[in-house]
Amino acid sequence: MTRPAGRALATAALAVLLAGCGGGPGDAGNTGNAGNDAAASDRPGTTAPPSSTAAKSTRPLERSVPVGLRIPAAGVDTPVMRLGLAADGTVQVPPVTDDDRAGWYRHSPTPGQVGPSVLLGHVTVGTHGDGVFRHLARLHRGDRIETRLENGAAAEFTVTAVRTVRKAEFPTDDVYGDVNRPELRLITCGGPRVGEEYRDNVIVFAALSATRPAPS
Question: Do the beta carbons of residue 185 and residue 170 sit within 8 Å?
Answer without folding.
Answer: no
